[in-house]
Design goal:
Elements: E1 5-9, H1 13-25, E2 29-33, H2 36-45, E3 50-54, H3 62-72, E4 77-82, H4 87-95, E5 100-103, H5 108-136, H6 149-161, E6 168-171, H7 178-187, E7 196-200, H8 206-214, E8 215-216, E9 228-229, H9 231-234, E10 239-243, H10 250-262, E11 264-265, E12 274-275, E13 279-284, H11 288-293, H12 299-305, E14 308-311, H13 322-334, E15 343-344, H14 346-354, H15 360-374, E16 379-380, H16 388-391, H17 407-429, H18 434-441, H19 445-455
Helix pairs in contact: 2-3, 13-15, 17-18, 17-19
Length: about 475
């Protein structure tokens, strides 16, 4: 059984009957309509993948129907039926967006050849979209979750600097998502097709950090049984992410500064210069300026790595993002299960909002993963959350109370909440199918996409 849905439109009943018979025999799901207006009504109820329509029909003709279909759902493929005298009109229709035309009268083989070509086009475009989403969606900064003013400022800065070659320093507490921001910058830069190579300076002994950075030659030290390029060499042409740069020993700070100035590296045990082309993004949870004052971090290196500084707020500083993040992680972890959990109960969400989150976003992610594993009802309950969330409350650390806001702001909050919950309900009912959700809600498909982006909703998280 093929998954594509086909709508056939023609004012000749015999033509409809013949097409339906052959297409269903080939395994397609087929709808028919004798008038353009009827076809448009059927299209509104069921988003068809392929429309086969006669060009000349009483009332709404095929050209008008083509324009209306493309306006409502641009990805739908349209094939025109035309007589010999209207071939020029069919060519005009192709300029308007039709994929192909079939000249009447046609044989079943001619029909199936055109339909198979159209279906192949549909499947290829679907595969391309899926691949593009896999490559970009995870790290595209538009999809980094956060609607708080603090995160919006971060997104605004990323938009400005992503496509430059300048070095970037990302500061913030552990668990705030510094590497995710670094990957987002890379994914939106001109280096996106090259490698993103990370190294955590705090996770390796000093002698291994040097080898990891610059590589080594055979025999350079005990255990160096063969030559090996370093991570900076691997990153050439792309982005090198140096996490916890504040843990880099002083002698390696000197060597890193030289690399940034000379744009070349020397492997451990070698005098040969190897040219590299990298963009450096660094991250730290330490006070580098204080370390410079204490002579524990080189001042010249500090000014070299912080051309642009992005500070990531702690989760306690972006408390309004907690519900958004919690539901984002919930949908993410549900993908690996066959269960239906609709969200967090008000009591559970209250606990999340009151928690101090010393582990920041990473801690919230782990809490959501644990809750999905433990939940037995259709909403996450307080019993599904760690006991520490009930014990670690601080006065004043609660989600914003709309009744304490001025009327205009409170109204905007209520509208935002309604929009988000309404869209999530539509997606849940239709298993993440955007076209069907838009149809039921009476929302233009493009408008629905804009609302999804606005509220940080991932439609794929609702698929079953």
């Amino acid at each position: 059984m093929n998954g594509e849905k086909i709508l056939v439109v023609d004012d000749e009943p015999d033509m409809l009957s013949t097409c339906k018979k052959f297409l269903e025999r080939a395994g397609y799901m087929v709808w028919v309509a004798e008038r353009g207006a009827n076809a448009l009504e059927a299209f509104q109820k069921e988003a068809h993948d392929l429309v086969l329509t006669d060009l000349k029909m009483p009332g709404m003709d095929g050209m008008t129907l083509l324009r209306e279909i493309k306006r409502r759902r641009p990805e739908t493929v349209v094939v025109m039926f035309t007589g010999y005298g209207t071939i020029q009109d069919a060519v005009t229709a192709m300029k308007e967006g039709a994929f192909d035309f079939i000249t009447k009268p046609f044989t079943p083989d001619q029909l199936m050849i055109s339909v198979d070509r159209a279906v192949s086009r549909l499947r290829l475009e679907a595969e391309n979209r899926a691949l593009q989403e896999q490559l970009e969606d995870r790290f595209r900064f538009d999809n980094v979750v956060g609607q708080s003013p603090a995160m919006q400022r971060v997104f605004g800065l990323i938009r400005k600097i992503a496509d430059t070659q300048a070095n970037v320093l990302i500061s913030g507490e552990s668990g705030t998502g510094k590497e995710l921001i670094a990957r987002s910058i890379h994914a939106n830069s001109g280096r996106r097709r090259a490698s993103f190579v990370p190294l955590n300076c705090g996770g390796l002994p000093e002698h291994l950090v040097e080898s990891e950075l610059f590589g080594h030659e055979k025999g350079a030290f005990t255990g160096a049984v063969s030559s090996r390029p370093g991570l900076m060499e691997h990153a050439s042409g792309g982005t090198f992410f140096l996490d916890e740069i504040g843990d880099l020993p002083l002698n390696l700070q000197v060597k890193l500064l030289r690399v940034l100035e000379e744009r070349s590296i020397r492997r451990v045990g070698s005098n040969r210069e190897i040219e590299i082309d990298i963009r450096l993004i660094s991250a730290t949870n330490r006070d580098l300026e204080g370390m410079v004052a204490e002579r524990r971090f080189r001042e010249d290196l500090y000014y070299r790595v912080n051309t642009f500084v992005i500070h990531l707020p702690s989760l306690s500083e972006r408390r309004e993002d907690i519900p958004l993040l919690a539901n984002h992680f919930l949908r993410h972890f549900l993908k690996a299960t066959d269960r239906e959990i609709l969200g967090f109960s008000p009591e559970a969400m209250s606990l999340l909002c009151r928690h101090s989150w010393p582990g920041n976003v990473r801690e919230l992610q782990h809490v959501a993963e644990r809750a999905v594993a433990l939940a037995s009802l259709d909403h996450i309950q307080p019993a599904d959350l760690p006991e520490t969330l009930g014990q670690n409350r601080q006065q004043g650390m609660i989600c914003p109370d709309r009744f304490q806001l001025p009327f205009k702001e409170a109204k905007e909050v209520v509208i935002e909440e309604f929009e988000k919950s309404y869209i999530e309900h539509l997606l849940a009912v239709h298993s993440g199918n955007i076209s069907r959700a838009a149809e039921q809600g009476g929302i233009d498909r493009r408008s629905l996409h804009r609302l999804l982006a606005k509220h940080g909703i991932d439609a794929s998280g609702f698929s079953r």
